[in-house]
Write a structure and sequence with these properties.
- The structure holds two protein chains of two kinds.
- Chain A is α+β, with helices and mostly antiparallel strands.
- Chain A is built from 15 helices and 21 strands.
- Chain A has a domain at about 280-485: Roll (Dipeptide-binding Protein, domain 3).
- In chain A, a hairpin with a 2-residue loop joins strand 6 (about 130-140) and strand 7 (about 140-145).
- In chain A, about 50% of the residues are buried.
- In chain B, helix 1 runs antiparallel to helix 14 (about 280-305), helix 5 packs parallel to helix 14 (about 280-305) and helix 6 crosses helix 9.
- By secondary structure, chain B is mainly alpha-helical.
- The longest helix of chain B has about 35 residues, at about 85-120.
- The model of chain B has no long low-confidence stretch (mean pLDDT about 85).
- In chain B, about 75% of the residues lie in helices and about 0% in strands.
- The chains are: A alpha+beta, B mainly alpha.
- The interface between A and B is large, with 53 and 52 residues.
- Chain B: It is found in: Cell membrane.
Chain lengths: ~525, ~325
């Protein structure tokens, strides 16, 4: 009987413990974010897909991070010094920062990551093309030597999007060109990778060993505190479902809501609207390598002169609060804002456009405009411009394809004359794709080559701004690309969430009210 | 029956082989490239070539096909470029959702379509028949995505009775997770129930004009027995055939509903993989869909014999 009682008590204790643990487990807080779709592999060094960056920045970290004014601040780095006129950069790392596998981050990990980024990273060549060596000059010290100084080096390594995320040495060294495997999604971030269920979710959970910086959180910079125990990034491709899901309480946050819903959602008490502080902008690239627009600056200016950008922005983005017909490549309030050349931004003068086209010996040859339907805004802008150009006697032939086809075709200069894409906000001109001579469009005139070299090697902010003014003026003169205008995307969140990041979806420091 | 089944298995194998060639050729003819999608905007030609080589996409197309089909015969459908997981496990994950969604939809379709079709046939020519036929036309005409969005708005966002979207597996959360499939299955059932309703009605009207039905009535058999034993049973032959194809179509073609309700099903998987050119997944999924279609076709043919012993299988 005594024995039975003891067994009974043990059982009771066991059940109580199980119930307690179960209660603890169910008390784990979960944040559910509805993303626009399934991400590509989360090897953030390789890809510039936003959906991969949003998830990846919770797992992987960079040496520097951008604050709310898009200024780079130390994250995994502690400090830096420049020598030899900026050609040698010595970065001191923070000590005692653990990876998710428990190993401490050291200079060897940074060197291996930097080497891989330079070889295969989406934005690696911007900095590492000029690197002569990168070495661990101490357990926590990395020395990068460049053939010429680079005034934007810190900004170039301050974001995970195609950027220098720090991986453990063995993972970075063994990965090569292939995206790293899921088992190797090991970073130093406040959340660690748990699992990826195709078309269901990607789950990350709080990393208990995370070591934050001391400074207060600001944008993507500063201290990162994981308050939610787990985050699930759930692909919800339909925008209506993302909205209803937040309204119904099935999701806590939903990305990229369409412009036509902005006004009604702004008044809806069941959601809070989170408009981005950094605009994206549509771009129409001219083919500088081949075809009717190659070196034909007069015809390009004719095209630019015919257009009314406001009309395209209104059609593409709806509410006036979500777009701004701004000719400066960088928005007002940023250090790079410039008024150079903007009088040519959106003249909407079909008569003058006709005259310019005539001067360019244009005889009505179809201009092939490559556009994708995957991004509705691209298609809307292209459709409006095609109509406006027809009024000016310029014959545009739209070639509508899906995004995967466009990505391939735009690399073949014989296939197109203009292609449509968009650009996310850039904290430095050197990150602008159209300044990259190997990017489709291939703008590499002698004038831009010289100004680009000047911008890269200059380290003085005032001199760099003066160079940028000249480049913007040249953009309106040679028209390698046409900016459509600034568009402010917005997300929605449960009204219960507080501490949302103004730079974009990042859920450290986010809690419930 | 057995010799018939064997014969069908042989023709099925030939069909599968032909389908594999067509699937492989078709997806590789379509322009676009997974490497560009994977590496994104700023990839250089060197990076693109290097990754293409590593994934074996630079090999001659025939060699790529032979490698793939060789693996398929060993039960290996390859590895997803984007999910970094075996295609078979990716399909299995999606198949659970699609199979349950299709089954639940078919339950609604049967519960709504067959009885109402019967009523319409029995009350042929009356205002009730006209009303039911009109309602069926209306249900068949309304787009599924529209029905889906309104079901979400009313039953999830306003009333909060059902979840708005997603589907956590029943193996993780238990049978209660089937509530996630109630609204999508209703959205899918609307047009399909209308189809079955009209088919049941038309078949029953055809059969009711047969001599043996007239004889049964003349013998004084009760009207409901004439309907249930003599008319409905024979009319079901055509309906069962439609059931088979509807079920197969629901497994693979529910892409709009799966997108609206963010369901991790097969239809969405295949469309997403086509958009990203995830070749191994596209090839694997379509091959599995072909197999499912062939199997369902076989089951439907075999079921004719069970429903009507006069049918001979040759």
């Amino acid at each position: 009987m005594r024995c039975d009682l003891s067994a009974l008590m043990r059982g009771a204790v066991g059940i109580a413990t199980a119930l307690f643990l179960n209660a603890q487990a169910s008390a784990a807080t979960l944040l559910r974010e509805a993303t626009i779709g399934e991400p590509p592999p989360l090897d953030v060094m390789l890809t510039t897909a936003d959906v991969a960056s949003v998830i990846g920045r919770h797992i992987f970290e960079t040496l520097y991070a951008l604050d709310s004014t898009y200024t780079p601040r130390p994250l995994l780095a502690e400090s830096e010094r420049e020598e030899d006129g900026g050609k040698t950069i010595v970065i001191k790392l923070r000590e005692g920062v653990p990876f998710h596998n428990g190993k401490e981050m050291t200079a060897k990990d940074v060197v291996a990551s930097m080497t891989r980024w330079g070889n295969v990273g989406a934005r690696g060549k911007l900095l590492m093309a000029a690197a002569t060596s990168v070495e661990a000059t101490g357990k926590y010290e990395v020395t990068l030597k460049l053939s010429a100084p680079n005034g934007a080096w810190k900004t170039l390594i301050a974001d995970v999007n195609g950027g220098l995320a720090i991986y453990p040495e063995e993972i970075a060294a063994n990965a090569g060109n292939k995206p790293i495997e899921q088992k190797d999604y090991i970073g130093t971030g406040p959340y660690k990778f748990v699992e990826w269920r195709p078309n269901r979710y990607v789950e990350v959970e709080k990393f208990d060993g995370y070591k934050p910086v001391k400074e207060k959180g600001d944008g993507f910079a500063g201290a990162r505190t994981a308050i939610f125990d787990k985050i699930r990034f759930i692909p919800v491709p339909d925008v209506g479902t993302r909205v209803s899901g937040v309204q119904a309480g099935d999701y806590d946050y939903a990305e990229m809501i369409s412009g036509d819903l902005y006004e009604s959602l702004s008044k809806d008490p069941s959601v809070q609207v989170q408009r981005t502080n950094a605009p994206i902008f549509g771009l129409f690239f001219m083919n500088s390598k081949q075809g009717i627009l190659k070196d034909n600056y007069k015809l390009r200016r004719a095209i630019q002169t015919a257009l009314d950008k406001s009309q395209a922005l209104r059609v593409a983005f709806g509410s006036k609060e979500l777009w701004n017909a701004e000719g400066s490549i960088f928005p007002k309030g940023t250090p790079w804002y410039s008024a150079e050349g903007v009088s040519s931004y959106s003249p909407h003068d079909p008569k003058k456009a006709k005259e310019l086209a005539k001067e360019a010996d244009y005889t009505g040859t179809p201009i092939r405009l490559l556009v994708s339907t995957n991004y509705q805004a691209h298609y809307d802008e292209a459709a409006v411009f095609t109509r406006q150009l027809a009024d000016a006697g310029i014959n545009v032939q739209m070639m509508v394809v899906d995004w995967a086809t466009l990505l391939k075709m735009r690399g073949q200069p014989e296939q197109w004359d203009i292609f449509v894409t968009h650009h996310s906000f850039s904290p430095d001109p050197l990150l602008l794709t159209f300044l990259n001579a190997s990017y489709p469009g291939w703008w590499d005139s002698p004038e831009i080559s010289s100004l680009r070299a000047e911008l890269i090697k200059s380290t003085d902010p005032v001199a760099r701004k003066a160079t940028w003014d000249k480049i913007q003026s040249l953009i309106y003169d040679q028209v390698p690309v046409m900016k459509v205008g600034d568009a402010y995307t917005y997300d929605i969140a449960s009204p219960k969430l507080k501490g949302l990041n103004p730079n974009g979806p990042a859920f450290w420091n986010v809690s419930t009210k | 029956m057995w010799s018939y089944s064997l014969k069908r298995a042989a023709t099925t194998t030939v069909t599968l082989l032909a389908a594999s060639v067509i699937i492989f050729a078709f997806i590789h003819i379509v322009p676009g490239d997974p490497i560009y999608v994977l590496l994104g905007d700023t990839a250089t030609p060197d990076q693109i070539d290097a990754l293409r080589h590593q994934l074996g996409l630079d090999q001659p197309i025939i060699l790529q096909y032979l490698t793939w089909i060789g693996h398929v015969t060993e039960g290996n459908l390859g590895r997803s470029i984007f999910f970094q997981a075996p295609v078979l496990s990716v399909i299995a994950d999606g198949a659970e959702t699609s199979a349950l969604l299709a089954t639940m939809t078919m339950i609604w379709v049967t519960l709504i379509g067959v009885p109402i079709g019967m009523i319409a046939a029995v009350r042929h020519g009356t205002w009730l028949d006209q009303g039911l036929s009109g309602a069926a036309m209306l249900m068949a005409s309304i787009p599924t995505f529209w029905v889906g969005l309104y079901l979400i708005l009313i039953f999830a966002a306003w009333l909060g009775w059902f979840p708005s979207s997603g589907y956590p597996s029943i193996f993780e959360g238990g049978i209660v997770n089937l509530r996630y499939l109630v609204l999508p299955s209703l959205a899918l059932a609307a047009p399909n129930a209308a189809l079955i309703l009209r088919l049941t009605r038309a078949s029953m009207l055809d059969v009711s004009r047969e001599d043996y039905v007239r004889t049964a009535r003349a013998k004084g058999i009760r009207p409901w027995q004439v309907v249930s034993r003599h008319i409905l049973r024979n009319a079901l032959l055509a309906v069962v055939s439609a059931f088979g194809f509807t079920f197969a179509a629901l497994l693979s073609e529910a892409v709009v509903t799966e997108t609206v309700f963010a369901l991790p099903g097969i239809g969405r998987l295949v469309v997403q993989s086509i958009l990203r050119r995830d070749y191994p997944v596209i090839q694997g999924v379509i091959l599995v869909i072909v197999v499912v279609y062939l199997l369902i076709n076989l089951i439907v043919d075999l079921s004719y014999r069970l429903l009507d012993p006069r049918v001979e299988l040759q």
